[in-house]
Task: structure prediction
Amino acid sequence: MKLISEETISRAYYKVKPLLSRRMQIAIRALVARQKRRLYREVWPIDSAAGSVPPQFVGWPNGKLFSVVLTHDVDTARGVARTRQLMELELEMGFRSSFNFVAHDYHLPPELRNLLVEHGFEVGVHGLEHNRSLYDSATAFAEHAKGINGYLKEWGAVGFRSPCVYHNFEWLHGLNISYDASSFDTDPFEPQSDGVKTIFPILQKGEYPAKGYVELPYTLPQDFTLYILFGERNIETWKKKLAWIAEHGGMALVNTHPDYMCFDGRPRFDEYPVGLYRDLLTHIQGEYRGEYWHLLPHEMATYWNVISGMAELKAGTDTVLPADGNLNVTVAVPPLGTSLLEKSKL
Result:
């Protein structure tokens, strides 16, 4: 008997999704997710294969053990309304992050985008609509790409994450981006669940260097999975995965959603207390003080281009010169060729 593929099931679900109440949608997804959690317990939240170190990796700057990148997908107008509160929380704690916005599903005030950038945050594009239509066909992707590239230019953005983290790494070369974040090391709960099996960035070379980009997989479980589908009430899963990433010297990239964060102390069925996210940031600061490199996604893409030979270091300085010339980022990097054992001495 021929088994029905996950892709077929996913397509069927998203076709009937508009007919279901939000509570019913979550109940169905939670039921499936709990079954998958048992089935994939050997590879989630940790897939041991993802800890292999890429051959070009020379370590993180200044002897840091691992890196921390914070990102947020803003799926709905509710998330837009909470963006400033989340920005202020991170500012208070000394962190910066990127916010990825959907272009057509809600109104995004230019003032909010400008506010984020003025405070050292980053803005990215999260598709034109929050559905899978971008990947219906190569023709559909090419048509969407015109609009996405327009918003990338208008917003001054260089990063993209697909809705529901669908991905086709070849098609993504059609976007004018420095990085894409539409993947993960391991996440069997997503509709396209093929993880890239690494906790490090990936250089996706194009036909010409200018059309290449860096793939930034998220490496900590998503907040929606942990707190809405599984109903967890602490950050133990995050802490466990973070410890493993730190041990293996990888990139801890977090993807959370202000849409699901409750700031008033009375979470609905599809929300969780924002204190859990604050607890994660507090844990990072306290448990790993001085041991991690915190940076924005576009800075990570620049760094990865450098150590992958796609950019140059200005002789005698620590200034990164991006290969595409579109970024204005300065980061200190260890001498090229420095080994993982030697980097701790820098």
Residues 22-39 form the longest helix (18 residues). The domain at 48-297 is CATH 3.20.20.370 (TIM Barrel). The longest strand covers residues 66-74.
